[in-house]
Amino acid sequence: MSNNISSLKALAASITPKKEGDIGAKRGDFYSFPLDLFEEQPGFNPRNYDNPKTKAHIEKLAQAYMAGQMLPPLIVQVVDGRLIVRAGHCRRLGARLARERGAQILRLSCIEMKGDVNEQDALLVTSQDSLDLSPIQRARVYMRYINRGMSPDEAGVYVNKSGKHIKEELELLALPDELQALVEDDVVKPYLARKLFKVHGGEKALNMVLAQIAALESEDENDPQQPLVPGATATPKNRRVTEKQFKNVMPLTIKKSFAQTMFNGFSSLRQHVKDAQPDATDGTIQLKLPADIFAQLDTILAEVEKLKAKQLAPKTDGTEEGTNDDNQQQLAV
């Protein structure tokens, strides 16, 4: 096959059957090519095919192909006469699995992509496939843009995301490999892993998460879940490390508006501290404050107490805090 072929039309013409039994290409609403011609470029797709979710997804696609269901065409690029998949990697594997089980799959439909490497990477993130990339997998794609000299804002244009989103997901790549794996397995949420890493560093963050996992496993051993049906095997609990398990070692999160109020209040207080009168006889200091400054300080202290109470109170709505850093700051108290 010629290395000069760079389009589906030319590729289809080049594989015209020459003898009985050869499988050529077909042209209908889409081009259809022999299944074995579709290739995956090593390292292009960031998915982990050994991940249970990915395996289940491919199995579901294989069953769909075996049932004769119509699935979307693959998106491909012709490179030096080779048919390289750019979107639909799991569909390709599902079709091959179905064929191994006896399904008569001669060809797969495909659409040609003409974009450059940036648009090809964007397709991985924005593709409407039913199995989304994980945050770690997306971060690996985003890093390709950074390695090409782009800023997070510039990379975000290609995937319709903000530069802030790109930067946050890139931070996941700084986590220890074992902590990344726990994020991949949905044992710990990405935002919590990032927060623990920022506050405590990689090694300590990992050890803290592992300690919580061990504690949860110990709970399971002491309180095994009973099966609903007598005689059936108990289903293991789906354990996940959450932010409330670290409430005693994490800084409080406060709104930027309150941080500004604190700054203004303590700035005003500092001016009056300079005029404070120490009493050498009993080691105390007398400080006279205007009523408005005292009221401002009292308000700040009351808000801090509310924050402490909020941190210690258990969450009842199932949501997690700390997912939006735009208007928040951390306060260690």
3D architecture notes:
The chain is of the alpha+beta class and 333 residues long. It folds into 4 domains: 1-15 and 23-130, Conserved hypothetical protein from pyrococcus furiosus pfu- 392566-001, ParB domain (Alpha-Beta Complex); 134-174; 178-220 and 238-244, no CATH class; 251-313 and 325-331, no CATH class. It has 12 helices and 10 strands. The strands form 3 sheets. Strands 1-2-6-4-5-3 form a 6-stranded mixed sheet. A hairpin with a 2-residue loop joins strand 4 and strand 5. Helix 2 packs across helix 3, helix 6 crosses helix 7 and helix 11 packs across helix 12. The longest helix is centred in the C-terminal third of the chain and has 22 residues, at 291-312. The protein is elongated, with a radius of gyration of 29 Å. Mean pLDDT is 82; it is low at 232-236 and 315-324. This is ParB/Spo0J HTH domain-containing protein.
Relevant terms:
single chain, 333 residues, alpha+beta, Conserved hypothetical protein from pyrococcus furiosus pfu- 392566-001, ParB domain, 6-stranded mixed beta sheet, two-stranded antiparallel ribbon, 10 strands, 46% helix, elongated, plasmid
